[in-house]
C-alpha cells in the first residue's frame, strides 16, 4: 500500500481487517503537522474504507501542534456541548478524554450517539501512555450493525430510543458544565433548538429527555451503522451492587442516566446483554505509544477505554458536526 508514499502504510494488525490503518513515519523526527500536506491525501484515500487511521512514529510538539493538525482538515473544532462525561477543556477545541477513575472501563460507543447531532471526525493524541492498560479499543460500526441480530435491529429501528438524564446532585455531571452556562433560559433555548425536553425539578436540578436514532446512514459511504449508546446509558450497565444501591436512594426516573424505547417502555436487560456480546466480538485493541495520533470517522468506528495504571494523558478533538434529523 505504500508505493505512492514515503510512509509505511498497512493495517496495524495483520489478518484482522483494515481498522486501524497504520501510517508510520519513515524515520524519527518527522513532524506530524509539517507532514500534513502529504498525509491529507492518505486520509482521503483510506479513512472512509477502514474507518480509522493511526499515525505513529511522528514528532508531535505538543497539544497546540495536535490542535493545528486536526483543524487543518478544514472544519472548525467543536465545543463539547451536551456532553455526558466529565472532561477538561485544555485548549481551543481540545479536551481531555473522559475523566473517569482509572479502574473503570468505558464501553464501546460512537461519540455523542445519544443525541441527534454528532461530530463526523474525532482525533485522539497520546500525550502520556499509561503504565499498563489504558488502551482505546475501537470497532467497525458497520460490522456491529451486520452482527446485531435482525430481531433486535428491527425492534430498535422501529421504536427508537429515549435517553433520560438527571444532572448534578453529586451523582453525575452538573447541568452548568454540560451546557457550558449557568443561565437557565440559555439551557431551555438550547433544548428547544435540539429537540430535547427539559424539566426543572423541585430541587432545582434538571432532567432532560431526548428521542434519538438507533442506527444511522453514513452521509458519504451510505453504509448503515449501529449508532446509539443504549448499552452504555441503560441502568444494566452499572455493576449490580451499584445499581441496587442507587435505587435504594433515588427512584428510577431520577437515576443519573437511563434509556428506554422511544415510547417510554423499558428495554430488556437480556437484549442489551446480547448487544454487548456483539460489541465484545468486534473489539480491536492495541497499546498507545507516546505521540500516537488516531483519527476516526465517528460514524464508521466506535471507541472505548480500558482500565489503566499510572499516569495517562490522552486529549481529544472533534469536528464536522452532522445530524440526520435536525435542519
Automatic annotation (TrEMBL):
It comes from the Bacteria. GO terms for biological process: antibiotic biosynthetic process. Keywords: Antibiotic biosynthesis, Oxidoreductase. GO terms for molecular function: 2-oxoglutarate-dependent dioxygenase activity. Residues 27-318 form the TauD/TfdA-like domain. The keyword Acetylation does not apply. Pfam families: TauD. Its cofactor is Fe(2+). The keyword Oxidoreductase applies. This is Pyoverdine biosynthesis regulatory protein-TauD/TfdA family protein. It comes from Azotobacter vinelandii (strain DJ / ATCC BAA-1303).
Amino acid at each position: 500500500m505504500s508505493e505512492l508514499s514515503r510512509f509505511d502504510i498497512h493495517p496495524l494488525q495483520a489478518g484482522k481487517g483494515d481498522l486501524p490503518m497504520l501510517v508510520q513515519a519513515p524515520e524519527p523526527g518527522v513532524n506530524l503537522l509539517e507532514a500534513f500536506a502529504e498525509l491529507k491525501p492518505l486520509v482521503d484515500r483510506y479513512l472512509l474504507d477502514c474507518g480509522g487511521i493511526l499515525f505513529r512514529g511522528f514528532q508531535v510538539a505538543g497539544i497546540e501542534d495536535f490542535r493545528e493538525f486536526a483543524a487543518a482538515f478544514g472544519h472548525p473544532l467543536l465545543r463539547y456541548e451536551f456532553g455526558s462525561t466529565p472532561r477538561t477543556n485544555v485548549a481551543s477545541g481540545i479536551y481531555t478524554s473522559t475523566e473517569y477513575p482509572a479502574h473503570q472501563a468505558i464501553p464501546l460507543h460512537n461519540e455523542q450517539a445519544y443525541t441527534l447531532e454528532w461530530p463526523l471526525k474525532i482525533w485522539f493524541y497520546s500525550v502520556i501512555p499509561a503504565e499498563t492498560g489504558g488502551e482505546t479499543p475501537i470497532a467497525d460500526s458497520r460490522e456491529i450493525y451486520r452482527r446485531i441480530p435482525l430481531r433486535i435491529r428491527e425492534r430498535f429501528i422501529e421504536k427508537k430510543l429515549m435517553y433520560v438524564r438527571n444532572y448534578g446532585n453529586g451523582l453525575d455531571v452538573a447541568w452548568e458544565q454540560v451546557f457550558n452556562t449557568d443561565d437557565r433560559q440559555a439551557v431551555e433555548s438550547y433544548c428547544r433548538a435540539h429537540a430535547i425536553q427539559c424539566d426543572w425539578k423541585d430541587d432545582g436540578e434538571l432532567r432532560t429527555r431526548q428521542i434519538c436514532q438507533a442506527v444511522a446512514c453514513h452521509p458519504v459511504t451510505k453504509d448503515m451503522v449501529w449508532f446509539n449508546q443504549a448499552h452504555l446509558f441503560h441502568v444494566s450497565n452499572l455493576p449490580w451492587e451499584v445499581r441496587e444501591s442507587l435505587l435504594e436512594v433515588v427512584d428510577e426516573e431520577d437515576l443519573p442516566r437511563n434509556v428506554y424505547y422511544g415510547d417510554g417502555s423499558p428495554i430488556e436487560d437480556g437484549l442489551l446483554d446480547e448487544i454487548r456480546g456483539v460489541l465484545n466480538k468486534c473489539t480491536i485493541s492495541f497499546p498507545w505509544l507516546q505521540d500516537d495520533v488516531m483519527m476516526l470517522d465517528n460514524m464508521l468506528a466506535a471507541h472505548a477505554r480500558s482500565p489503566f495504571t499510572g499516569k495517562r494523558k490522552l486529549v481529544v478533538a472533534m469536528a464536522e458536526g452532522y445530524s440526520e434529523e435536525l435542519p
